[in-house]
């Protein structure tokens, strides 16, 4: 997933954070926290109003492997 994010970021001239945030925001539902974010300004550089094409979302989705929730019972 990280390599694909880097590939899309390089191709578009964006940061990896921008691509990762754009992909996250393109999902119909977010069911996990964004690790490391404690203040709104942590999200600002990552969002930046970037939208991915359907093709780019598909590229990234093909690499994504969901994981079970850890640490909760």
Detail the poorly predicted runs. none
Oligomer: single chain
| Beta strands, count | 0
Strand count, sense and barrel status of the largest sheet are: none
SSE order, one letter for each helix or strand:
HHHH
Distance between the termini: 27 Å
Strand content: under 5%
Shape: globular
Number of structural domains: 1
Mean pLDDT: 81
Overall SS class:
mainly alpha
Short descriptors:
73 residues; mainly alpha
Overall description:
The chain is mostly helical and 73 residues long. The protein has one domain (2-63). Helices cover 48% and strands 0% of the residues. The chain has helices at 2-12, 16-25, 44-47, 54-63. It is globular, with a radius of gyration of 13 Å. The relative contact order is 0.22. The mean pLDDT is 81.
Short description:
By secondary structure, the chain is an all-alpha fold. It is 48% helix and 0% strand. The model has no long low-confidence stretch (mean pLDDT 81).
Question: How are the SSEs placed, and which strands pair?
Answer:
Layout lengths: L1 H11 L3 H10 L18 H4 L6 H10 L10
Helix pairs in contact: 1-2
């Amino acid at each position: 997933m990280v390599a694909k994010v880097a590939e899309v970021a390089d191709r578009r001239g964006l940061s990896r954070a921008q691509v990762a945030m754009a992909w996250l925001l393109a999902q119909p539902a977010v069911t996990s926290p964004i690790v490391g974010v404690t203040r709104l300004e942590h999200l600002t550089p990552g969002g930046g109003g970037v939208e991915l094409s359907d093709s780019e979302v598909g590229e990234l989705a093909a690499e994504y492997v969901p994981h079970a929730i850890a640490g909760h019972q």
